[in-house]
Amino acid sequence: MQVLVTGGAGYIGSHTVVELLAAGHRVVVIDNLCNGSPEVLNRIHAITGQQPVFIEGDIRDRVLLDRLFAEHGIDAVIHFAGLKAVGESVACPLTYYENNLYGSMVLCRAMAAAGVRRLVFSSSATVYGEEAAVPYVESMPRGMTSSPYGTSKAMVEKVLEDLCAADQRWSVALMRYFNPIGAHPSGLIGEDPRGIPNNLMPYISQVAVGRLPELSIYGNDYPTADGTCERDYLHVVDLAVGHLKALQILDAPGVKTYNLGMGQSVSVLALVNAFIQVTGVEIPYRFVSRRNGDLAAFWADAGKAHQELGWRAERGLEAMMADTWRWQSKNPGGYR
Ligand code: NAD
Ligand code: UFG
After folding, report:
1. What is the per-residue pLDDT for 336?
2. Are 117 and 111 in contact, with CB atoms under 8 Å apart?
3. Average pLDDT of 184-188?
4. 60 lines ligand 1 (CB under 6 A)
5. Which residue's CA is the nearest one to ligand 2's atom 34?
6. What pLDDT sits at residue 154?
7. CA-to-CA distance for 269 and 297, rounded, in angstroms?
8. Which domains does the chain have, with CATH numbers?
9. Is the CB of 84 under 6 A from ligand 1?
């Protein structure tokens, strides 16, 4: 297949491009590099021996998209491009709706005009909302999201459902990610957040490499076994493989929704200890007050992805820690 990957210079997108190329697909990447790096393309080449076509541009640029679809016979789109910082979305909601919601709508318009109606969309466990019972199952309704970021994901899901209901030619997979961490085992590509990381894993690895002095653990008074929050962490390479599996079911029309997670939760403290144990590097940390909007614990029921896609997260915590550390220690400043 010739696959258009939006946001392919980013964290999850770059790992997915590697898996696509390795599986024999041809890839076109569009990315405006607002949170991605052009160096990613060189690294993808170093891993796979192949270079995807790269178009630096914005998914909100309809003229550019029309040209892209006219020039490259695209069969399907995997849509990662978007903004993802939860706190920033609270401060700048319009920026998030413009990028994530409007951007997705422009993309769908351009796809329809080009006759391309197969789409895999990056959604998030956050769409289950604050009240959902664990583990999260796809049959649950979307809930009350706690940030404009989460709402933008829920809104795009709804737009895509409505689109499929209106036009039977569309085929869409909504992939609800839990907490992707880790890096490609080569250590050549990985997560490279700009500024101080918001997320736990890159924060830990930047403390380990000496870029940050210590980790603040947000809250140790949650109703969990050790008092710290629990999340369902999965290896980014497993997540990438999930997208390839989703491509295979896009012959059938309609919307399919899948949780992509390990199906088990790990506490913040357990993750820190796993990192120390696997890498031998100490992580100084202290407990601070809870972070606004954090839920105590959630994890996936990942059974549907296993039954329908034949997908299962296979790489365990040890690989997640070792691969994160290989990436971070080989690239202490990220791609820069
Ligand atoms: P990322 O920021 O590393 O990658 C996103 C890429 O999209 C970046 O390279 C960025 O430059 C590009 N981009 C952003 N807006 C664009 C636009 N308007 N036009 C063109 N390119 C644009 O993020 P990621 O972690 O790889 O996440 C990919 C997707 O998965 C996002 O949609 C994110 O919301 C979703 N997601 C991520 C997580 C996570 O924990 N990383 C969890 C759930 C869902
Ligand atoms: N945490 C810390 N210290 C830090 C960073 C995080 O203690 O410096 C804790 C958080 O309080 C939370 C856990 O580590 O308990 C995980 O936090 P992350 O920020 O890594 O991940 P979240 O679960 O908050 O959010 C992630 C993505 C969202 C996505 C959500 C659900 O960032 O985009 O998973 O999939 F919506």
Report:
1. 86
2. yes
3. 98
4. yes
5. 179
6. 98
7. 13
8. 2-181+235-261+299-314 (3.40.50.720)
9. yes
Contact 260, 242 (CB under 8 A): yes
Pull the structure tokens for residue 329: 């220690």
- pTM assigned to the model: 0.99
- pLDDT, tens digit, 9 for 90 and up, residues 25-80: 999 999 999 999 999 999 999 999 999 999 999 999 999 999 999 999 999 999 99
The token pair at 273 is: 């200890």
Q: Kind and range of the H or E element at 131?
A: none
Distance from the alpha carbon of residue 100 to the mean position of ligand 1, in angstroms:
9
Centre of ligand 1 to C-alpha 277, Å, is 30
Catalytic residue status for 149 = yes
Q: Is the CB of 178 under 6 A from ligand 1?
A: no
Could you tell which of 175, 273, 294, 299 is best to mutate to test the pocket of ligand 2, judged by most ligand atoms within 8 Å of the CB? 294
Spacing, Cα 7 to ligand 1 middle (Å): 6
pLDDT level of residue 206 (50, 70, 90 thresholds): very high
Please identify which of the residues 96, 97, 128, 149 carries the catalytic annotation: 149
CA of 225 to the centre of ligand 1 (A): 32
End-to-end C-alpha distance for the chain, whole angstroms: 32
Q: Token pair for residue 314? A: 């296979």
Q: Cα 299 to the chain's mean position, in Å?
A: 16
If one counts every other C-beta atom within 10 angstroms of the C-beta of residue 251, the result is 8
Ligand nearest to the CA of 199: 2
Residues 262-289: what's their mean pLDDT?
A: 98
* CA–CA gap between residue 173 and residue 157 (Å, rounded): 10
Nearest CA to ligand 1 atom 43: 124
Averaged over 167-183, what is the pLDDT?
98
Separation of alpha carbons 54 and 30, rounded Å: 6
pLDDT interval class at 202 (50, 70, 90)? very high
